[in-house]
Q: What sequence folds into this?
């Protein structure tokens, strides 16, 4: 394998393995900032050794073993060794854990639980919402600081400061590395869901600037009803429908995230725009609006007035629809969306005059 190929392999391994690596190390050292530093140390070791020795058969286990050795060395030198003994365990226990990682046996695999704990830490309510998103993208999505800054159109230094402050806050507050239980679950789960939703929205449609996924040859937005559904990723559609089915089987009233998924499912199930089950969509939107209108954080969410405008157009109420589209245009930070919404508002004005 050539040096460029090895570099690409290391980058790919890091993208896949770093969340599991950081999560496993956080369980050991109980400090997410230190865990990321140790993971980075292991990455540096890989960059130094793999071009000569080749990529190991189990690169994730190699990185974890290397990081754990670094953890032992660092904590031996650290005056906090005594306080960390119970969390790290004695050297014998650490060596046993290293051996288990190298075997990579599913019977000893605690990766899923560790990743879930890392998600709850990254999304802890003690952090500001923008810090939660940045830390989640860094630790669990393996994005670089530069990539996160590009996604949110802010300076790299701003994102770096958010991440550093977030890790320091978690350390100083001694936030436990655990999945919450009891009365704390609802509040903590709400925070996690909010972050996942924000991450999804940023990937789905840029929140600022003029970048969008669904554009035509000239860069114009292609609306949902005008899209070629044959180009949709049917594997992802099936996965989404299956996830929605599992959520609906839980029972009880559907929450705002499930309602939005149910609306998307109506579009996904329709082979053509004409086959869309609009009656069902309207019913879902009625329930969704009831659930969301009282939510303060959504007062500036431009998709709500945009949807209202679209539904009012279908009801022939052009004047009211124009007001909603104009409000949505004033709320969005995306240049192309603003242009589209103002165009729809103008079309409503023409329709109202003609009627």
A:
């Amino acid at each position: 394998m050539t040096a460029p190929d090895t570099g690409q392999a290391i980058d790919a391994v890091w993208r896949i393995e770093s969340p599991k690596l950081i999560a496993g190390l956080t369980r050991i050292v109980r400090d997410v900032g230190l865990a990321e530093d140790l993971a980075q140390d292991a990455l540096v070791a890989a960059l130094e050794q793999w071009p000569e020795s080749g990529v190991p058969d189990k690169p994730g286990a190699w990185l974890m073993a290397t990081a754990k050795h670094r953890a032992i060395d660092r904590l031996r030198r650290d005056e906090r060794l005594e306080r960390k003994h119970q969390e790290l365990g004695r050297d014998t226990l650490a060596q046993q854990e290293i051996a288990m990682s190298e075997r990579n046996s599913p019977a000893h695999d605690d990766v899923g639980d560790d990743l879930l704990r890392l998600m709850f830490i990254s999304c802890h309510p003690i952090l500001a919402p923008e810090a939660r998103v940045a830390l989640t993208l860094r630790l669990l999505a393996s994005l670089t600081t530069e990539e996160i800054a590009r996604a949110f159109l802010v300076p790299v230094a701003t994102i770096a400061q958010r991440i550093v402050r977030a890790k320091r806050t978690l350390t100083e507050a001694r936030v436990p590395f655990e999945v919450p239980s009891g009365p704390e679950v609802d509040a903590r789960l709400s925070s996690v869901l909010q972050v996942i939703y924000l991450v999804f929205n940023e990937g789905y449609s840029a929140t600022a600037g003029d970048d969008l996924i669904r554009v035509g040859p000239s860069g114009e937005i292609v609306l949902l009803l005008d899209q070629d559904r044959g180009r949709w990723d049917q594997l992802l559609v099936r996965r989404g429908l299956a996830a929605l089915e599992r959520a609906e089987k839980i029972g009880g009233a559907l929450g705002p995230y499930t309602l939005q998924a149910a609306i998307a499912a109506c579009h996904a199930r329709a082979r053509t725009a004409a086959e869309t089950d609009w009656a069902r969509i309207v019913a879902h939107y009625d329930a969704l609006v009831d659930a969301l209108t009282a939510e303060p954080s959504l007062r500036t969410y431009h998709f709500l007035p945009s949807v209202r405008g679209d539904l009012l157009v279908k009801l022939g109420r052009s004047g009211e629809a124009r007001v909603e589209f104009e409000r949505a245009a004033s709320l969005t930070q995306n240049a192309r969306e603003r242009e589209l919404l103002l165009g729809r508002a103008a079309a409503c004005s023409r329709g109202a005059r003609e009627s």
